[in-house]
Design goal:
Elements: H1 2-27, H2 30-45, H3 54-78, H4 80-83, H5 101-122, H6 125-145, H7 152-161, H8 163-172, H9 177-200, H10 202-207, H11 221-237, H12 240-243, H13 249-272, H14 275-301
Helix pairs in contact: 2-3, 2-8, 2-14, 3-5, 3-6, 3-8, 5-6, 6-7, 6-8, 7-9, 8-9, 9-11, 9-14, 11-13, 13-14
Amino acid sequence: MIAEKIYSESTTAAFSWKNKLRDYSQLIKFRLNMSVVFSTFLGFILDTTGDINWLHLAIVVIGGFLTVGAANGINQIIEKDSDRLMKRTENRPLATNRMGVPEATIACLMMGVAGVFMIAYFLNPLSGLLSFAALFSYAFLYTPLKKLSPLSVYVGAIPGAISPTIGYVAASGHLDTFAILLFVIQFIWQFPHFYSIAWILDDDYKRAGLKMMPLGTTKNRKAALQIVLFSLLLIPVSFLPYILNCAHLLTCTLLAIGSGLFAYQSITLYRNLTNASAKKLMFGSIIYLPAMFLILLLEKIL
């Protein structure tokens, strides 16, 4: 009997730790976090000023993971009541009271301070400043604006686009033309990417009172047209690296072809106005961005 009781208690404890790990994974939005950190990773290795410093790469990846995790956690603290109203988010730890606000606040504070400090102290102050700016603007500007205005998406695109620039500056120590180009590409990409998600989840967002569709629209051609225009803008932007002597013409032509294929998916959404087309655009956006950065990386390698 005693052995059975000990086994039962140890099993319960293990199960609790497993659940707590799952809750923290949800708090920091682990999959989204990893996609952002991947952009930071690509930005770091796109620096062409020297060989890759693997220790510095590890620092910016870990620091970035902590910083993004803090921003995502603060987002959920602020939106815990809204999250209860949406099917996609109703099972988050704060929305279900599996985790209290004090615990989440302490965790986010520790992650945010540690992440920004690591990047600023062990790499360079500029990349640390950019990391802090991304955390602050996402958590304290974009998040509360979501209930006030669709302009929130424009504000949110700034921290959403800055991750490769942080990686590049962490490696090079300075903000140059190429670092700004990485920001511009990802900034414009944010709109068709996020608006495709907003299209699919429109009912969910409306239940929570979040204004996430393109300016002055619902799920109509006016909204789809704005998505098309942002997608088409990526085609001329693809040639900026060549114009600014950051890449060869062939590289930029490949970027433009990829941008054209991406834009075609947004045009399909404009024609059909269906969730199915929005889903294809969303998945296309997930493929598009790393593909573009990998093309730029080939320029460095070759």
